[in-house]
Design brief:
alpha/beta, 7-stranded mixed sheet, about 15% strand, single chain, globular
């Protein structure tokens, strides 16, 4: 079974191409969910210094979460690496705290491209009968951990009867945890979260306070929430990467409105050139990239993450262009098994044509859509 794991490795120096698997819609990491979108006016990120190149759109609206699992967006915007590829096309960034609100913006025409987890991507694609989005690239793998109160929980078997938080019902972490519970032979009602383990759906922004107060005994969460809990006395009991083949699974995708992709493929290609160059820079300069992501988070939230949080969180996330499509397929199967969704038709959810064009031009290996590409 693929799903969660031990400790994670340092960010790699080369952008990865692979495949593996679990589900997400969390908060503060492919997961920091709330409901409001916030427009980002960071001057460095919005317009390229060389604004001479003319593309088919005057602006592109890009959404992301203020989470470390969205490091490609954080660093790419902070360093101007995406804007540089867009020439005269301005970036209009928006930060979101929830997958549903980002999907709503994409569906409503107020967002063109977004960084988001696999679970909301699947749900939105299925609900629209394949008409509203395409996944055009990967962005990150890993960065999800089960952190517990070590005074109450010392082994995985001790989770029975305890209260464990996930970011949101049906989000990637929630589905992965429900699948793990089922693999243990325990039962939980997916709607209420009640059962052999109490699954408490809690916004990642609230989870640290709930943990400190004792109202939850642990949490299956993305970074940096996991490391925040550790800094508050928690202990990592399981790292999700250890449950996946090759220790890789998609945590963040890049999606695009099908309408925008059809009307402005040159702009989408320019954004992908920027994300590929960003990922290459992140993997070649992990310490500088960590500082850059933290600076962007500080601009979002008013203060940077403490070193005791970001230092252990950062190396547990693998930055990659590969969407790890086979793992998204597995995550959707887990959601079906948990009775959260009906068996979905995911054919056409990926369109990696432009990404592979960019990768080939950059001398990097092309990536696979695991047979789920647009025909």
């Amino acid at each position: 079974m693929p799903a969660i794991g031990n400790s994670a490795k340092t960010l790699r120096r080369s952008v990865v191409a692979a495949a593996a698997l679990p589900l997400l819609i969390g908060a503060l990491a492919s997961c920091g969910y709330g409901s409001e979108a916030k427009k980002d006016d960071a001057p460095k990120a919005n317009v390229a210094a060389d604004a001479g190149k003319k593309l088919s759109a005057s602006e592109v609206r890009i959404g992301y979460f203020p989470n470390l699992t969205h490091a490609t967006a954080l660093v790419g915007l902070q360093e101007g690496l995406i804007a540089k590829e867009l020439g005269a096309t301005a970036i209009k960034p928006q930060s979101f705290n929830a997958g549903p609100s980002e999907i709503e913006a994409l569906n409503g025409g107020s967002l063109d491209i977004g960084f988001i987890g696999p679970s909301p991507s699947i749900n939105a694609y299925v609900k629209s009968k394949g008409s509203n989005l395409r996944i055009i690239s990967g962005s990150a793998s890993g960065g999800v951990k089960l952190v517990v109160n070590p005074a109450k929980i010392k082994t995985l078997d001790d989770l029975k009867g305890k209260k464990i938080a996930t970011p949101q019902k049906g989000n990637t972490q929630d589905v992965a945890f429900l699948n793990w519970i089922a693999e243990k032979g325990w039962t939980v009602d997916p709607e209420s979260g009640k059962g052999d383990v109490s699954v408490v759906r809690t916004d990642n922004k609230v989870t640290p306070d709930a943990f400190k107060s004792g109202s939850i005994d642990g949490a299956w969460v993305p970074e940096p929430t996991a490391s925040k809990l550790v800094s508050d006395g928690g202990a990592v009991l399981l790292d999700e990467t250890t449950l996946w083949p090759d220790k890789k699974f998609v945590i963040t995708n890049i999606i695009v409105s099908q309408k925008f992709l059809k009307e402005h493929p040159d702009v989408v290609e320019a954004v992908l050139k920027g994300t590929v160059k960003t990922n290459e820079w992140i993997n070649a300069n992990p310490d500088k990239a960590k500082a850059s992501a933290n600076a962007k988070l500080a601009a979002e939230g008013g203060k940077p993450l403490d070193a005791k949080v970001i230092d252990p969180a950062w190396p547990s996330i693998l930055i990659t262009n590969d969407p790890l499509a086979a793992t998204l397929k597995t995550q959707s199967e887990w959601a079906v098994k948990a009775k959260l969704i009906e068996k979905p038709d995911l054919n056409g959810i990926y369109d990696l044509t432009l990404l592979n064009k960019v990768l080939k031009a950059a001398g990097q290996p092309e990536v696979s859509d695991a047979g789920l590409g647009a025909k």
